Amino acid sequence: MISHPTTSPGAAPPAAGATRALAEAEIDLDAIAANVRTIASVTGNDLMAVVKADGFGHGAVPVARAALAGGATWLGVTSAAEALELRAGGISAPILSWLHHPDEDFGPLLAAGVDIGISTMSHLRTAAAHAARRRTTAMVQLKVDTGLSRNGARGTDWADLVALARAYELAGTVKVRGIWSHLADADQPGSPLVRRQVSAFRTAVRVARAGRLDPVLLHLANSAAALTAPATRFDICRIGLALYGVEPVAGAGAGLRPAMTLRSSVVNLKQVPAGTGVSYGPGHVTAEPTTLALVPVGFADGIPRSAEGRASVWVGGARCPIVGRITMDQCVVDVGDRPVRLGDPVTIFGPGPDEPTVAQWAHWAGTNPNDLLTGIGPRVARRYLGVAA
To answer: Model pTM?
Structure first.
């Protein structure tokens, strides 16, 4: 079970003498719920809230509850452990878990009523065998590879998977509830590959139905496609990045609310002359007299070293640059002559537009927001706000 230091809405402040984390991720659960409603108003169909990787670093169980409160009807996770964590948290909503060992013990998932994503014959045989031993039926969703060339079956493997699934249906050990796939470049509106994948998906569904399968749940769209490509929506859309308030398509604002604000504080201040080296290397030398503020977050907390020389934070009422190398536990900020004091708050990223956003940090680091959000380390406390909890 994944856990982080947390503060629930309405919780009492830490007792005297209690330790305080050096950084805190504030999670707005009302924003999660609002994002579900916003996306549903665009798509017009059901949504699966993807809460894998500990809810993209936000906390899987609190995020799942908020998403369901906002109207999501399904939850999506990568692994059996993640699915069972949600069940242990008291969540009874439908769950799809889609990445497993070929010899996985599917018994706990069957007992928990979790749908199993199936991409290979080996996985299907294992699921059916566990169902037979338990005298039950495994609810599965078959994944077809329509062009991502990652997980999923394709070509004759798909036809064989369909035939085997039908045989297990007749035996009563498997029921195919859904068919699904994943898109390769839906964040590029108008992509011809998206159109080809939609066509390949429709063909795969026809093959399945010709094989006498009768899935009731077809899904292809991720966040970007759900918002910009109506042909991908089918019965349900899987919402990952957009759930957390990050626009999945650059420049195509959908009115989403970022759910995470990452904060720390100033723990040291020093006035230095021109020519002062800063951090290892030194990676930076001051061009003029200035004030340096030390912020106790670094790459062990999810602040990427690759953003060096480009990143800034919000402190003293303005954006101030991080200077020198970002280290494991700390970074240095040039605050100039701003009236910054020890203990002043520092916003690493937030909803904007004043403070930097996680999307801007991803740009500075040469990565994507998913990488940043899931990389926020366990030393960072999570604090939850909003009635959605």
So the answer is: 0.92
